[in-house]
Amino acid sequence: MNNPDLDEWFATQILVHEAALSRYLQRTWHSASEVPDLRQEVYVRVYEHAAKTRPDNPKAFLFASARNLIADRVRRERIVSIDYSQDLDALRVLVDEQTPERRLSARQELRRLAAALDQLSDDCRDVIWLRRIQGLSQREAARQLGMPEGTVESHMSRGLKALLKAVFQRDGTDPGNGVEGLGRESENE
After folding, report:
1. Which of 11, 58, 81, 179 is the most buried (most CB within 10 A)?
2. How far, CA to CA in Å, does 68 sit from each of 8, 45, 118, 173?
3. Which pLDDT does position 175 carry in this prediction?
């Protein structure tokens, strides 16, 4: 399919994020040698979708496609062939089951994280989102937010400390307790 308009859109809206996409894939996939293949597969998915309908937010769509690809790959790796299912005991494969306790614990940690994120200052939350979720470098995040790199580093440090404290608190308090005003002291800077 030869579509110069689509090719130009792809080059200006998708390929410009190649470094961030590569960093994201390296962080989330267990085999660094497969990252170039994964990146190409993400590009194919995005290009084929854009040939039908262009996404409103190309960068967000690119990273959502990468997340979905990783999820698909993980699911595929977990599938056990029926031919081998009879030999599981012989292979001594351990099954890491999700117990109700582990699910509850994970939900509680997620609630604490959400509450803590809600309590962060807007700047701290934006910095953490760009650096940890979208995988931008400190320089890229500073440029996008229009602030000095040192300020980005300060917000990142303060925000992560507050999130760690809130998520991993062990005193049995309500998930929302102890997170009031997290990272807000920076608002006066």
Report:
1. 179
2. 25, 10, 26, 35
3. 43
